[in-house]
Amino acid sequence: MAVKLTKAQKKIAYDAKLCRLLDNYNQILVVAADNVGSNQLQNIRQGLRGDSIVLMGKNTMMKRSIKLHAESTGNKAFLNLVPLLVGNVGLIFTKGDVKEVSEVVAKYKVGAPARVGLIAPIDVVVPPGNTGLDPSQTSFFQVLNIPTKINKGTVEIITPVELIRKGEKVGSSEAALLSKLAIRPFSYGLVVVSVYDNGSVFSPAVLDLTDDDLLNMFADGISMLSSLSLAISYPTIAAAPHMFVNSYKNVLAVAVATEYSFPQADEVKEYLKDPSKFAVAAVAAPATDSAPAAASKEEEKKEEPEESDDDMGFSLFD
């Protein structure tokens, strides 16, 4: 027979469990658990069984245990979790890939009806078609201004209707109609709201970043750094190539404007004296590239008659 624990003993056991998890795990997902039932939570626990553990509890108890653990161990990094424990939230401790864990959690969503007074998390659109309701039920549709017609003794919705908008409260008429149509428009599950990793806290949106996204962000940062360095004339590795090019342009401009010269400047001066040389140089490059291609085409044309005779399968003596 199981021994029933007192309230104080339960708190002590919960505190010990949370501290043990903090000692063994460095990655924690803070998840919102609004409208999540016990059976659904049990299914999530089974799906994460292995490297991950789900821990629910009162925010005050979790905050107290985390603060006491940080004081006793000297690890103040865990205090970053305290401001995140707001509302109906829980913790998922994991040693696996954080992104994979969040994907597994997202799979366990359960459809739910639209209850009166509930804030709609998404837009609810009633699709057109036969509802299966008898004509006496048309009053529901008339109250909600939904165009209908009677078809084969049942009510049929003519066009799709946006019944509830995201962020609006569900009214009694909308809830009754969706219940009659057997529509469960909402789905609920654990939602990752924050990720804790070795003392750092970041948004779950970071988990969706790809390598290309990171490269683009890095390139944008280098571009901004180069622009700032050039604007304030402060040398950095990122701005150094641009500074060298700009300096070379300045020296070249001085050489062109004065009698001072150097080999690269002599070439530029020649082009300035006779611009036609620049046009000839620009055209000569593609012309030389096309010469081998033209020669190969001529060779192919010469070989074509011989290949055509062979393909016919007979010679001049047949």
Automatic annotation (TrEMBL):
Keywords: Ribonucleoprotein, Ribosomal protein
GO term, biological process aspect, one: ribosomal large subunit assembly
Stretches the record annotates as Disordered: 285-318
InterPro entries for the chain: Ribosomal_protein_uL10, Ribosomal_uL10, Ribosomal_uL10-like_insert, Ribosomal_uL10-like_insert_sf, Ribosomal_uL10-like_sf, uL10_eukaryotes
Residue ranges of domain Large ribosomal subunit protein uL10-like insertion in the record: 114-183
Stretches with biased composition (Low complexity): 285-295
A GO CC term attached to the entry: cytosolic large ribosomal subunit
Gene Ontology molecular function, alphabetical: large ribosomal subunit rRNA binding; structural constituent of ribosome
Domain of life: Eukaryota
One family name in Pfam for this protein: Ribosomal_L10
Gene3D superfamilies registered for this protein in UniProt: 3.30.70.1730, 3.90.105.20
Signal peptide start and end residues: none
SUPFAM superfamilies: Ribosomal protein L10-like
Function noted in UniProt: Ribosomal protein P0 is the functional equivalent of E.coli protein L10.
PANTHER family, per the entry: 60S ACIDIC RIBOSOMAL PROTEIN P0
Assigned protein family: Belongs to the universal ribosomal protein uL10 family.
Subunit record text: P0 forms a pentameric complex by interaction with dimers of P1 and P2.
Protein name, UniProt field: 60S acidic ribosomal protein P0
Source organism of this protein record: Vigna unguiculata
